[in-house]
Inverse folding.
């Protein structure tokens, strides 16, 4: 059972989403008023150690740990000036991280890298891989315990499919071994123990689901019962909830989830549906030799005295689904600005104006069937058709989750997306936005060896719609939004298998020839500007920013060659001769 599996058990009533990562709602440049937020990881157990600002390693002097009644501990900006979008707030190596089983043989367990030169396998467990002896030696103080544990687990596994423990079991095992190695009185151990803070917020019924996880952990550590783990602060299976709540996704620089990470500082950041920061692993030259490095970047201006806030849930979901996910996972109801105040039409639940004025209408509901355009006040004439489309779209999204055949899934998304669009749903509306992302992923994964112009164009159009939907929901510079612009720009650079003989000038998308290259260049320029926010100005957008910059240089040369070629053709075209008559 992985961290994802454990959290899924608490989210069984929430709707499926296929949008990559959590995100924020639109913001203003002015500092926000104080918000009522809840930290599901706030310290409510006085028996546990507490974290003080002065004693936490890696905490900048201009960030303070404060506690508010009913909210819990959080991080606050106490510096003299605003934190700008793209500024780094925290930069740290997680206290612990573990690769998911799927990525053990493709990424280094020491630095999470995936070098082209390949990896070398541990000769003991033969399950964990490293890129260099430096990474292997650096990980050995913990892996020597893990190595034996994996071998023992594998020897008793009933099948190859379960021959390696889940990332949840392995990550917690590594944490406990490091506590044992450093000592329970060490600063490292106290920071981990102070993070265990959410047990009182979890339903007893949820705790019961951790019994199997506890049994797996006991078996993996070679203990006879859970009581043998009391020295590490594990008194019952309920205590294991704290570790899953505090874990966050370990990703590649391109946001692909490859494992889990634990950091006491990141765990202190409270939730809001109007976040002002996000957490990424941007990579880049400056962090070589110390990877993986998690960085917390500001998404907008953060004024002195303002709290540092991130989102715990997928911000492309409408309020009802966000609230449901928060209650199921963390057992609290968010009362941030986006959840309490209502201003205008939520782009996550919207349909286009029936008179095509460019405005949006809120999706009609059974309780409120009359839906008017926010601009011209035109009324949706057939609310049942819009509600039916949204319902059918959600059913399709739920069905896709159970399909194992990618071809069948692609056929389903191909058929259902036009239905939702013809009903007037905007690209930013759930579930259309999630279906667009899924369709784009399925199209790219099924690219044939001989790519056709039709498939390439369909993929670009889908990416364009998905990017437009994200831009309506997420802040400028949000990592997910920035990465989708990168994806769209890269698709536009793919060589056209069979470009049309005549270039259409009617504004159709995607364009062809020189216009397509120009569109790719402009999209990637915009993507790089947003990468400087979501992935850091000081590191120029991290590893992805470096790749985009190189692509832009190549595109500039290609566009220059293209322009020069057209000019030469025009100059070489013989002009009509004028015969002089005498």
């Amino acid at each position: 059972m992985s961290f994802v599996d454990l959290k899924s058990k608490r989210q069984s009533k929430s709707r499926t989403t296929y949008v990559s990562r959590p995100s924020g709602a639109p913001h203003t440049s002015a500092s926000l008023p104080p918000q009522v937020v809840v930290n599901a990881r706030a310290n409510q157990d006085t028996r546990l150690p507490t974290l003080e600002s002065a004693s936490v390693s890696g905490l900048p002097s201009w960030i303070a740990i404060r506690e508010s009644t009913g909210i819990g501990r959080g991080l606050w900006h106490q510096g003299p000036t605003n934190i700008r979008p793209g500024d780094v707030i925290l930069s740290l190596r997680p206290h612990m991280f573990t690769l998911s089983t799927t990525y053990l043989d493709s990424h280094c367990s020491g630095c999470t890298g995936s070098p082209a030169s390949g990896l070398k396998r541990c000769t003991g467990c033969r399950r964990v891989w490293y890129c260099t002896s430096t990474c292997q030696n650096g990980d050995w103080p913990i892996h020597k315990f893990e190595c034996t544990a994996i071998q023992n687990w594998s020897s008793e596994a009933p099948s190859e499919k379960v021959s390696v423990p889940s990332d949840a079991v392995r990550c917690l095992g590594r944490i406990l071994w490091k506590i044992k190695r450093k000592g329970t009185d060490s600063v490292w151990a106290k920071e981990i123990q102070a993070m265990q803070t959410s047990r009182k917020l979890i339903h007893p019924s949820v705790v019961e689901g951790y019994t199997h996880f506890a049994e797996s952990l006991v078996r993996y550590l070679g203990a006879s019962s859970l009581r043998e783990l009391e020295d590490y602060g594990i008194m019952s299976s309920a205590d294991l909830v704290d570790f899953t709540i505090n874990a966050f996704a370990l990703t590649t620089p391109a946001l692909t989830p490859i494992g889990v990470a634990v950091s006491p500082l990141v765990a202190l950041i409270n939730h809001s549906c109007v976040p002002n920061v996000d957490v990424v692993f941007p990579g880049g030259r400056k962090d070589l030799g110390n990877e993986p490095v998690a960085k917390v970047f500001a998404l907008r201006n953060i004024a002195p005295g303002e709290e540092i806030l991130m989102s715990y849930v997928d911000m492309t979901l409408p309020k009802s689904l966000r609230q449901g996910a928060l209650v199921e996972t963390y057992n609290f109801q968010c009362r941030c600005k986006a959840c309490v105040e209502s201003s205008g039409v939520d782009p996550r639940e919207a349909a286009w104006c029936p008179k095509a004025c460019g405005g949006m209408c809120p999706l009609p509901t059974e309780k409120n069937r009359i839906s008017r355009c926010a601009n011209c006040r035109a009324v949706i004439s057939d609310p049942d058709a819009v509600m039916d489309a949204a319902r059918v779209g959600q059913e399709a999204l739920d069905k896709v989750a159970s399909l194992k055949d990618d071809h069948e899934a692609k056929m389903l998304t191909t058929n259902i997306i036009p239905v939702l669009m013809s009903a007037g749903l905007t690209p930013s509306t759930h579930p259309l936005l999630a279906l667009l992302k899924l369709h784009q992923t399925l199209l790219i994964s099924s690219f044939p060896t001989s790519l056709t112009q039709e498939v390439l164009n369909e993929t670009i159009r889908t990416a364009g719609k998905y990017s437009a939907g994200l831009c309506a929901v997420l802040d400028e510079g949000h990592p997910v939004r920035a990465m989708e612009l990168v994806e769209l720009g890269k698709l536009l650079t793919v060589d056209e298998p069979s470009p049309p003989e005549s270039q259409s000038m009617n504004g159709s998308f995607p364009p062809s020839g020189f216009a397509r290259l120009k569109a790719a260049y402009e999209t990637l320029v915009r993507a790089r500007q947003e990468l400087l926010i979501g992935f850091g100005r000081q590191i120029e957008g991290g590893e992805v920013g470096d790749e985009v910059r190189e692509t832009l240089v190549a595109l500039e040369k290609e566009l220059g060659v293209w322009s020069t070629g057209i000019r030469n053709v025009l100059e070489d075209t013989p002009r009509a001769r004028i015969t002089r008559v005498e």
In short: Residues 6-49, 575-582 have pLDDT under 50 and may be disordered.
